[in-house]
Amino acid sequence: xxxxxxxxxxxxxxxxxxxxxxxxxxxxxxxxxxxxxxxxxxxxxxxxxxxxxxxxxxxxxxxxxxxxxxxxxxxxxxxxxxxxxxxxxxxxxxxxxxxxxxxxxxxxxxxxxxxxxxxxxxxxxxxxxxxxxxxxxxxxxxxxxxxxxxxxxxxxxxxxxxxxxxxxxxxxxxxxxxxxxxxxxxxxxxxxxxxxxxxxxxxxxxxxxxxxxxxxxxxxxxxxxxxxxxxxxxxxxxxxxxxxxxxxxxxxxxxxxxxxxxxxxxxxxxxxxxxxxxxxxxxxxxxxxxxxxxx
Amino acid sequence: xxxxxxxxxxxxxxxxxxxxxxxxxxxxxxxxxxxxxxxxxxxxxxxxxxxxxxxxxxxxxxxxxxxxxxxxxxxxxxxxxxxxxxxxxxxxxxxxxxxxxxxxxxxxxxxxxxxxxxxxxxxxxxxxxxxxxxxxxxxxxxxxxxxxxxxxxxxxxxxxxxxxxxxxxxxxxxxxxxxxxxxxxxxxxxxxxxxxxxxxxxxxxxxxxxxxxxxxxxxxxxxxxxxxxxxxxxxxxxxxxxxxxxxxxxxxxxxxxxxxxxxxxxxxxxxxxxxxxxxxxxxxxxxxxxxxxxx
Lengths: 295, 295
Prior knowledge:
- Two copies of one chain form a homodimer.
- The relative contact order of chain A is 0.14.
- In chain A, 36% of the residues lie in helices and 23% in strands.
- In chain A, α5 (165-175) packs antiparallel against α8 (227-242), α6 (190-201) runs parallel beside α8 and α7 packs antiparallel against α8.
- Chain A is built from ten helices and 14 strands.
- The first copy, chain A, is α/β, with parallel strands linked by helices.
- The interface between A and B is medium-sized, with 34 and 34 residues.
């Protein structure tokens, strides 16, 4: 019973999804659930009732605490929690949580890099990855709609950069003139992807390299089914070129399987040494923050 | 009557507009008209009837010849005219026109830069600008949905590069997360534009600088009404950074008034010496090609 009392529910609540886990004080995952109810699908007053109702089964044994991260702490979430400045370790982040219900429901702050960049949710994944892999110093990339490149030094997040890579990919694929060259069926083509990476690594602007897809298509140099792979290589390669990926560089990729595989392929092609880790790193991060809360 | 017989109708028929002019053999513009009927608004069989009907008034004195340029010569136009390779002067281009009706209706070929880039219509504007200003060597930029940077050497177009600048601007403004920061009313703000140019000139990727708009907006560092000016600076600046614009560089900007003013402002800010010229340069270009046709 004493153990159950110290279990808590960790929540990763972003723009487009809701994930929760029941964690034991030692980090053991006792149960998990996920829904598609991202924060954009709610009105203000609906967040807390949804949280309690959705986690009712997880909380059955009697759970006293909820710790959440992600866009739930933004202006459009349950409670706006001011960004915590870098450098920030789990201790600083724990000291800056926002309290929805004192000692019951807390939200992890996002981080700001000076006033030049922001993130919400990735900080928990980064701290979790550091805990899981025993890292105190690392360069990590969290690919996605808005990719984050995060520097960890002495266990603290010292800085990060955002790239709108996934969003540009979707915009170009769905709404631009390139859509004409991207006809169905779309088949994953690693050679076309690497060709996109290499075109991007020439260091020209994406404004220019993106048009190369159209030109290749006009001159029948690119199969329509491979065009999305080439485009994926162009945008990911643009990000890697900007981050000046070099031979021998070591880094960690955190994210879903498909994106991790693509980044790993590109990074390996460029001579970097990449490890990958899944999104469940968030639970270990929330645990690390929980352990530093003054409850 | 002899003079009238040698008059001809020049047409610039693009994706989104139709423009025609009655030209005397010496280049005098005897009449002009424009409509919004770009090539995407037609089925195949409708192009020629529309051309004749729309130009009926211009052709009243008895006109024997039509010379057209632009996307009308593309796969989706009246007749697909193969791209003419660079380097190409008015003579090469005249030798490669496509004949819709022999000795009556011709379409100027677009150009290709190796198999790496293509354009249709801009070649006529570039040759026209060269004729109007008496240039044989120049670097010209034609800003727009797809900006073209064109090198003219010894009166021939030797190469060019396309940037999807205007299209990226529209995509980001209308379909991306940045739309949230771009609320009405939109007010032209030269300071915000120059701030965007300077951010872009740092040489970081647009994938990254675009997110700076969101961050500035979150921290109230950018008025919503000025955000579109800042975004315009980011994309145009990205193009200028890729073209390595330097102090003292001389170039010619050809296009509509608003874009010419923005490019001129940015180029002047970077120390380049820019001249501007309107889109009517196309007529002088079509005249130069007409004069080299073997009729």
